[in-house]
Amino acid sequence: MNKKYHRPPRIVTWLIGQMFPDRGGCSVLGDMTETYHALVGDRGIFWARLWFWGQFLKALPHFLIDESRWRIHMLKNYLMVAFRNLMKNSAYSYLNILGLGVGMTAFILISLYVRYELSFDTYHENADRIYRVIREGRAFTPAALGPDLKEKILEVETVTRMIRQSKTLISYEQKHFLEEEFYWADPETFDIFSIPFISGDPGTALIDPSAIVLSRRTAKKYFENEDPMGKTLTVSERYEFKVAGVFGDMPGNSHLVMDAVVPYETYFKITNNDINGWRSNFSYTYFLLREGADPRIMENKISPLIETPLYRVAGINEPQPKYFFIQPMIKIHLHSQLMQEIGPNNNIKYIMLFSSVAFLILFIACINYMNLATARSLRRGKEVGMRKVVGAKKGQLIAQFLGESATMAVMAMVFSIAMVLGVLPAFNGLVERQLSLNPIQDPQFFVGLVVIALFVGLFAGSYPAMRLSGFRPVSVLGGAFTRSATGSSLRNVLVLVQFSITIFLIVCALTVRDQLKFIKTVDVGYSKEQIVTLPVRGRSVRQNIQSIKTELLKCPDITAVSTSARLPNDIDTFTSRNWTGRKLEEPIGIFYNTVDYDFVELYGMQIVQGRNFSRDFPSDEKGAFLVNETAVKVAEWESPIGRKFVHFNGQKGEIVGVIKDFHLRSLHSPIDPLYVYLNPSSFSNISVKIKSSNIPETIEYMEGVMKKFAPSNPFSYSFFDEVFERAYFTEQRVGRVFGAFAILAIFIACLGLFGLSVFAAEQRTKEIGIRKVLGASVARIFLLLSKEFIKWVLLANFIAWPIAYFMMNKWLENFAYRIQLSFVAFLISGGAALLIAYLTVSYHSIKSARANPITSLRYE
Amino acid sequence: MATKFISRSEEFLLLAVWRLKENAYGVTIREQIREETGKTWAYGALFVMLSRLEKKGYLTSHFADPSSERGGKSKRIFKLTPQGVNALKEVRKAQESVWSGIEEFS
């Protein structure tokens, strides 16, 4: 033998030791080492090492096959035991699967929703390079901006401008519709956005000034099965456009959905507006950033470049640091909360809120499982003991129980997928989206679900598995093992966490509800009830408005009719100007609305100074203004009455009165300065005050009148209070979702509590028996059994309240007009949680408290 | 008897153990088999087979004197059990009866 000791390759030794602990110890490694040393002597180290590796590789398949043979035997046993357990304790299993399943359902629903919201606008090919130019707080930009960007800024590849003209009347033969998504847009629109054309050429479709491009559904609406190409549509009863293209409907997850597109420049020809103007803002400007360009650098280039024309127009003397900003298109839906947005955007805060609710509910469900499984563990103590005695290792037991919980989780997942499919239509109504769960279209999502199921199984099973596998056979099998103090304390903490989350969700739901109720009932400064609004477009309505009004008023159930450009709840038209008689010189922004004589009265607004518009004052006809109190304050006028004022389009007039402040936009924003201009012939809404009786007949009558005088104006109407509430759509959705998920959370928590109470009572059967024999009353025992849980539920309040207080205060800060957080909401949620917990626990507690002690003690 | 016969390789192994008497452990068994059949077994295969035979009850084993050339690991010495002897006898008997009267192959 060699003098020098040569160790065989250490990696191999280690590998065998790790992979096959049973074999590593002595025999094989020893034998291999012995031969290795012989080989070192005979043929040298290199060969010996090679041989050693070779032996290892050759041994691998043998070992693996041998090993797995026993694994499979054990697996069969585990599966059998798991199945038996499931059958034997079916109530418990249902409880568990139900809890997990409901939690997962909530989770899946919210993830579907969140995923949909996050997917907004991402389908465009160049989505990450599309940006929108905005101004501080506003989405509209001047018409002249677009060409300037393209010309002067290198980073800009393509620019498009567009004007949205909602409720545009389009006619084809006898068909008339108000188009909500009608756009005047540059031909480059189709270069920037990925909108696939079905017929026509996207590059040239909008070059012809009288071309119109329609979405597939819009084309179908007008032409049904005819070929739309080349057909002529009439817009606003005056302008004819030829269909030059049809594109595939834009998906719902777009912040910008177009149904009819006509050339941008045509708008300026028709309206006689200046397409190179900087003065008025009503266009959206989108551009495609060059590949690799830095958007931040680009953004800083805009304002200085166009300083001169812009400031000249706006009358700004000193340069402002930044006037234009850019925002990535994919962020618009969740991050942009500007005035003049295309449609109501969602808020990333709510998305995060919903996501955390989803995780919280899943977490509650996991806790449930842990709770029930550990409570159950006592029953399975004997099994664990036996397994250990016959040689099961801790690792094997852990694997067994984890496997069991993973199986449960997968079953719960299957159950929850079925449930999601069942409740998806209802959920879609709740969040007002069209979500779907389709495994074929969406394999990734399903893989995700399986991963989640396994994760939940492992997470929820981890604690029970650890505990169960840690049992000492002697104590389990010795019979002394009945109730462990350590186990119950952790269970209590879990109950605590669970109920904290539940109470938190209830507080949130209640607060959101209160704020929404506040919005509904707060005095906004105008009346909302019994007003029907009709959106109107087209010349015929405008020409016949006097006859329409007269005819409408003939109906005994109609008390007043008024026309206005904007409804009082959403006055978003804005201008900026120098006012006469102000102490300071620089211009001030002011909102405006155009109305007729009856508007103020119909909406029950109050005049605090001066007078309302009146037919008795013929001078009003030439131009008259009302301003609100805030405007007076901002302008620092001592007496506004009789002052000269100028409408945004240059029409002059006198201020005749001051309106009491009312909320001209949503309660999110404070009341801004406003002026109201009298012009009975410029309007886009008719408001009709009706009596509360015979409403259907009244509506029918209105339809008749409208059809008579404006047959091409499609009749549509809304109740003003609904229109008003519609502005709080996002908040209502939050409220509904919170409500629904608070209920789910309660349900899951109750399932868990119920299971726990069953086991607690079971554990203490004998104790209860003895207590009863010694004279305890049912009430006392009931108290004894429920005390434990109730204590923790009470404590949960004190954890949940501060968190809820903080979060809800943050939420309410979104509103300029808000409620104060009420202590009542907190008390109610705490009380409700307590009551529900009590009811849940009491069922079984009473049952065991009333049990005859003989049954529980007879074996002693 | 209706029990399954041991396989040929099992037969080789059992015989090798029997021949080696007190010195039957991995290295020697492998050596023995090579001498008799000319085939070199991998230790992995050898070991799996040995432990299977042990589980079946044909072999028993005990550990003996660790040595430095074995990297401080003790030898696992195998011994034939009476069942093992029986199994060998049965195989032998069956073999002789099926081969009896056939001269050409000897």
Write up what this structure looks like.
The complex is a heterodimer of chains A (860) and B (106). Chain A is 54% helix and 15% strand. Chain A is an alpha+beta fold. In chain A, helix 14 (394-431) crosses helix 15 (443-469). The two termini of chain A are 73 Å apart. In chain A, strands 1, 2, 3, 4, 5, 6, 7, 8, 9, 10, 11, 12 and 13 form a 13-stranded mixed β-sheet that branches. In chain A, strands 16, 17, 18, 19, 20, 21 and 22 form a 7-stranded mixed β-sheet that branches. With 106 residues, chain B is mainly alpha-helical. Helix content of chain B is 54%, strand content 11%. In chain B, strands 1-2 form a two-stranded antiparallel sheet. Chain B is elongated and about 55 Å long. The model of chain B has no long low-confidence stretch (mean pLDDT 82). Classes of the chains: A alpha+beta (860), B mainly alpha (106). Chain A binds chain B through residues 1, 5, 7-8, 13, 23, 25-35, 37, 54-56, 58-63, 65-66, and chain B through 25-27, 30, 42-45, 47-48, 51-52, 61, 63, 66-71, 73-76.
